[in-house]
Amino acid sequence: MAAPVLRCFFRGRCFCTPGWLAVLPMGLRKAHSGPQGLLATQKKRGLFKEFFPDKSTETELPELFDRGTTGNFPQTIYCGFDPTADSLHVGHLLALLGLFHFQRAGHNVIALVGGATARLGDPSGRTKEREAMDAKRVQANALALRRGLESLAANHHQFFADGRTWGSFTVLDNSAWYQSQHLVDFLEAVGGHFRMGTLLSRLSVQTRLKSPEGMSLAEFLYQVLQAYDFYYLFQHYGCRVQLGGSDQLGNIMSGYEFIHKLTGEDVFGITVPLITSTAGAKLGKSAGNAVWLNRDKTSPFELYQFFVRQQDDSVERYLKLFTFLPLSEVDHIMQLHVKEPEKRGPQKRLAAEVTKLVHGREGLESAKRCTQALYHNSIDALEVMSDEELKELFKEASFSELVLDPGTSVLDTCRKANAIPNGPRGYRMITEGGVSINHRQVTNPESVLVVGQHILKNGLSLLKIGKRNFYIIKWLQL
Length: 478
Known about the structure:
The protein is an alpha/beta fold. It has helices at residues 26-30, 35-45, 60-64, 90-104, 135-160, 175-178, 183-190, 196-201, 203-209, 217-220, 222-237, 249-263, 300-308, 312-322, 327-339, 345-375, 379-383, 387-393, 410-416, 424-431; strands at 5-10, 13-18, 50-52, 76-81, 108-113, 169-173, 239-245, 268-272, 398-403, 435-437, 440-441, 460-465, 469-476.
């Protein structure tokens, strides 16, 4: 069976990555086949929330994905991601998973980076205007988002292949078709097809107009540009379905109406639910609670722990939303959880699946090593950790590089690392049990450091003063 193909386009460049093959039992493959199987299964999982137009739910959308209908297969589906930051976050994952599910069913999907629209700012779901960004910052963010999308798509291919022939995954940037547009020409060609009353009636617009801050013209025109994006992809890529968060429904409707007026053709929208915190706030950069997908901003360990800490009342829903596990397997995991809730099996499986998708198998192993080192005081885990992992795990820790002189003592080490005060007080901190090296308490300040005990095989020492102050020491010239 043919391997899936990754096609990532960015301003004319194409990247192709073959996926690895893995074979599923026929029963599991059948569960994901067929038009009703795709839409109904994702609706049952809770991933697909709303369909637009409403009338399309029963016949038109299922027929659109029917392999048996001449000319209908494969379809093209897109979702947009504005580069308002230099990384995607957990709030973006459900839209991406929606694209991946379509891709796994054999359809072609497009991840559209909003290199142009990000300069206006999407008002949907916001109480105030976004912070203005200059063109260079948007361009840098767009490049970072492209890399993030490519990485996720590559991990999806490598670690989650199921033996079926997948569709393509394409990354585009909408600045490619806006940079050559002249304002007057664009307004002449596009503006006449939008009615002010309809645009003003959108919930996102109404909410902002009633707010003390009001709404800028740039934000107001955002839905026009998003509608044009849909039209452009429809014309050039045959894209007939737009996927987006539930706060994007108004913008999707604008695209539907614009395309229908110009072509007489029907297009469709599908929304995915928004992920919120326990307090009900939308997860994201603006809310200040983003869990990033870029390792430089949120480490694999932190991402893993975010999902491990999910409560029992949400973990089943998250297993259905954030993983590719068959529903029968999710049910089995939850049945085992009822018998042994203390093992937190569903949370660990959820964390493992998401971390592997975002950071690959190496990232997952890193997260597990960090978990063992921090919560289980594992010396074995510490010994195989890299400098990067220790810095990620102990973000507030001071990092020092020291030369191991003959006869270096515990007291010498603590002072060279500026971990204890000089004089009798620092000496007493050691004798009174306030210092540990590599999770082992040391009480003799004059003890000479021993390689393999105080210094790990990887040439590192983890010094802990009190309960929460960590110091990472890298020994040179061992």
